[in-house]
Amino acid sequence: MAVSLVLAAMPLAPAATTTVITSRALRAGHEADFERWVEQLNALASAAPGYRAAIRLGQTAGFQHLLFRFDDMTAAEAWQRSDAVVAHVAIADGFSTALRQVATGNRVAFDLPSDASASKWKRFVTTWLAVFPVLLLVSTVVRMVLTNVPLPLQLLPSSLILTATLQWIILPRLQRHTRFWLLQDDSGRLQTSPAE
Predict the structure, then answer these.
(1) What string of pLDDT tens digits covers the 196 residues of the chain?
(2) Nearest to 88 by CA among 146, 24, 144
């Protein structure tokens, strides 16, 4: 009897097992909303026919990957297209941007979006917007304090203050608040490789 229960829990054709992975970049301040949303999504998945497992992989703050396994593509598609899941996904689309990938088989590979996937031009714009006002303020103050000091010696404290301020204060906050936008492609989905 125990053997038949174990066999019943095994997929009928392991090579047909389908993996659905959804990567989401959250808007800052919606972490608690996402936690509640994931719990409900897991409940919807576990109630679906053909459901096998769910795995959640978290990266830096505001970046999550949700992996669901189903017996086959038919079960995975039926779950994804169900009215309840479509409505539930729409909720998360209000506070995050996503990329969904699907693959079948025992061994599957996915290219996951990460902070390195950000568009170079978007990263340039956000970094410049952070650097310019700080550089302007710091260099003005240093020039006022060190008026008779040669320029290279004025640049030394300016560069140290600018670098420290960006590294520990501005860029971590900027990244948290702009990741949602930085990682979107032209269609509004997450990208897995950087755009120019």
Answers:
(1) 333 333 335 556 778 899 999 999 888 889 899 999 999 999 999 999 999 999 999 876 678 999 999 999 999 999 999 999 999 999 999 999 899 999 999 889 888 887 777 888 888 998 898 899 999 999 899 989 988 889 888 889 888 999 999 889 988 888 878 877 888 887 777 877 766 5
(2) 24
Reference 173, options 92, 23, 59, 60; nearest CA is 60
Identify which of 192, 187, 29 has the alpha carbon closest to the alpha carbon of residue 95: 29
For CA atoms 143, 146, 149, 155, the dihedral sign is negative
Query: What is the bridge-based pairing of β-strands 96-104 and 63-70?
Result: unpaired
Q: Which residue has the tokens 């301020």?
A: 165
Phi, psi angle pair for 129, to nearest 5°: -65, -30
